[in-house]
Amino acid sequence: MKRVLLPLAVFLLIVGFLAVGLNLDPREVPSPLIGKAAPAFELPVLGQDGRRFLPTEMRGKVWLLNVWASWCVSCRDEHPVLVELSKKDLLPILGLNYKDNGEDAQRWLKQFGNPYQLSAVDADGRIGIDYGVYGVPETYLIDADGVIRFKQIGPLTPAVLERKVLPMAAALKK
Amino acid sequence: MTRTIGFVLVCLCFLVSGLKAQESSLQTQERTRQLEEKLRCLVCQNQTLADSNAELAGDLRKQVAEQMAAGKSDEQIIEYLTARYGDFVLYDPPFKLRTALLWVGPFALLALGAAALVLVLRRRRAAPEEAPLAPDEKRVVERVLGPAKGDGVPR
Question: Which residues in A97-124 are b (16+ Cβ under 10 Å) and which e?
């Protein structure tokens, strides 16, 4: 009996490790910024000459910062989800237009709809680096004190919104 | 004559300072390259920052170069990057509670294997040698093989 049990136990252990390990997505690098203050910046606003945006303007609100670009293919998949969310008016969505061409970006919003209150223009990607962006789209949930609470790497899906983002946002608003 | 010597000296000064400048820029280049080899590109994850052609890697290389030019130390630059991207950017992650399994795990497994080996070998050595044949077993053997010659030890 022992002859069978020990190899079986080892085998099951390996299966367990593989089951967990192979289901992890190596592309999802945990962000060290969770629980830290959202990095400060001051950037021009897309399509509004002379207007500049600072994240401190959003103090007191729970909001989403969505990093997007017109050249980003998965942003196109994500976009309807954001448009839908903006219609529900649950929480403000702001864009960070990452390394994009202003004209392309504006045309893109005209074509697919604009879910953003505004989009800050990060033309050289420097603020993106401060936020640890490495694969657009990425989305940050920022609380009333300006602390990053959650980061979604890759497109937001209805499932992620329902299960994670919206419940967290609702809890943070209290 | 003195004027010529003066001119030559001035030329030499320029030459030396020029060489020095080139040397220091070569050193910086070498330092930059060495640092970039230690950093992981986040887009193509099994390439270093130095090897990667991803756009983000280019931006990060630019950051490294700028900060190096600004006189930041390697540690400061590494801190800058880990504050944004986590320990994952390091090919040589630091030993912390979170990374303890990563560093200790293989050695622990090795020790476990060695312990198992020692245990098995000991048990094998401790096992009793085969007992000599009982008289009735001996009779059976003799019936089949014929009576033992001499003391029964084969020659």
Answer: bbbbeeeebbebbeeeebbbebbbbbee
Q: Is residue A159 part of a domain?
A: yes
Range of the domain at A113: 35-173
C-alpha B153: how far from chain center: 59
Name the amino acid, one letter, at A159.
A
Residue to mutate among A10, A74, A134, A151, with most B CBs inside 10 A, is: A134
Minimum CA–CA partner of B79 in chain A: A32
Please state the domain count of chain A: 1
Contact A128, A96 (CB under 8 A): yes
User: Per residue in B79-130, pLDDT tens?
Assistant: 999 999 888 888 888 888 878 888 899 999 999 999 999 999 998 888 777 7
- Is pTM beyond 0.95 here? no
ipTM summary value: 0.77
Nearest in space to A152 (alpha carbons), one of A81, A56, A90 = A81
N-terminal to C-terminal alpha carbon distance within chain B: 111
The shortest CB-CB distance from B86 to any of A26, A29, A133 is to: A29
